[in-house]
């Protein structure tokens, strides 16, 4: 395997360091960083070889149970790269940063988001859970603070009082979510990765990311489900 033989250079190391400090990076940022690292360290640069460049880093991260993974933002469909720890399940990884009842609030929030129709949970619904926690009840003010921290730490993102899972969280937790929510977690029918914010066919129940819905129906005169061919009755974003 040639990928294993590919050497880590200072350009690769710098790329990894910057990504580590960000946790997650948008595709265009990662491409800029790739170029900058290669220029600084005078390493051969090819603009279309970012994934190979990352592949080299990943082959060296393997013994450390780390991996740079590519995922997409459910809002706009843009590619993102995140550094993922494969050794610990994601919830145990969070356990070193949060208290028991904060973790319980996160799990319950995740339940609400994944079991919802559209992949969002309202702050009202989340805050109502705060005083029902089994580990230790939380006052609303405290819960609001904790939600803020989850947003800052890129586990959740928030828009107009509605919370959903952050892109970084989805990239890191995909396996965890698919195995812990087998009956409800859906893979997108188009790109086959986990879909939290999605549209669901009213006839057969398949789901699609909103950016995937947009792309898929762009070419069609009449929107029909890619699975059952029934008319797609939802508004195309």
From TrEMBL:
Pfam families reported in the protein's UniProt record: SMC_Nse1 (PF07574), zf-RING-like (PF08746)
Positions of the RING-type domain: 188-229
InterPro entries reported for this sequence: Nse1, Nse1_RING_C4HC3-type, WH-like_DNA-bd_sf, Znf_RING, Znf_RING/FYVE/PHD
GO cellular component: chromosome, telomeric region; nucleus; Smc5-Smc6 complex
Gene3D superfamilies tied to this protein: 3.90.1150.220, Winged helix-like DNA-binding domain superfamily/Winged helix DNA-binding domain, Zinc/RING finger domain, C3HC4 (zinc finger)
Localisation: Chromosome, Telomere; Nucleus
SUPFAM superfamilies xref list: RING/U-box
Protein keywords: Chromosome, DNA damage, DNA recombination, DNA repair, Metal-binding, Nucleus, Telomere, Transferase, Ubl conjugation pathway, Zinc, Zinc-finger
Molecular function terms from GO: ubiquitin protein ligase activity; zinc ion binding
Enzyme class: transferase
The EC number(s) this enzyme carries: 2.3.2.27
Reaction catalysed by this enzyme: S-ubiquitinyl-[E2 ubiquitin-conjugating enzyme]-L-cysteine + [acceptor protein]-L-lysine = [E2 ubiquitin-conjugating enzyme]-L-cysteine + N(6)-ubiquitinyl-[acceptor protein]-L-lysine
One of the protein's GO biological processes: double-strand break repair via homologous recombination
UniProt subunit comment: Component of the Smc5-Smc6 complex.
Function description: RING-type zinc finger-containing E3 ubiquitin ligase that assembles with melanoma antigen protein (MAGE) to catalyze the direct transfer of ubiquitin from E2 ubiquitin-conjugating enzyme to a specific substrate. Involved in maintenance of genome integrity, DNA damage response and DNA repair.
Family under the similarity heading: Belongs to the NSE1 family.
Protein name, entry field: Non-structural maintenance of chromosomes element 1 homolog
């Amino acid at each position: 395997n040639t990928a294993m033989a590919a050497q880590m250079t200072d350009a690769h190391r710098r790329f990894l360091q910057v990504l580590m400090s960000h946790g997650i990076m948008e595709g265009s940022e990662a491409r800029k960083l790739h170029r900058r690292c290669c220029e600084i360290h005078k390493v051969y640069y090819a603009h279309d070889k970012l994934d190979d460049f990352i592949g080299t880093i990943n082959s060296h991260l393997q013994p450390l149970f780390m991996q740079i993974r590519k995922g997409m933002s459910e809002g706009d469909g843009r590619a993102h790269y995140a550094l993922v720890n494969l050794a610990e399940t994601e919830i145990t990884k969070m356990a070193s940063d949060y208290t028991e009842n904060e973790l319980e609030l996160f799990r319950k929030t995740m339940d609400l988001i994944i079991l919802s129709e559209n992949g969002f949970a309202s702050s009202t619904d989340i805050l109502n859970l705060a005083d029902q926690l089994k580990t230790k009840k939380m006052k609303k003010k405290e819960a609001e603070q904790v939600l803020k921290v989850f947003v800052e730490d890129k586990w959740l993102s928030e828009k107009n009082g509605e919370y959903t899972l952050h892109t970084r969280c989805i990239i890191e937790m995909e396996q965890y979510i698919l195995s812990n929510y087998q009956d409800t977690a859906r893979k997108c029918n188009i790109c086959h990765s986990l879909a939290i914010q999605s549209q669901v066919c009213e006839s057969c129940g398949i789901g699609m990311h909103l950016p995937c819905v947009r792309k898929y129906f762009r070419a069609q005169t009449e929107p029909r489900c890619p699975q059952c061919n029934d008319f797609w009755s939802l508004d195309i974003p």
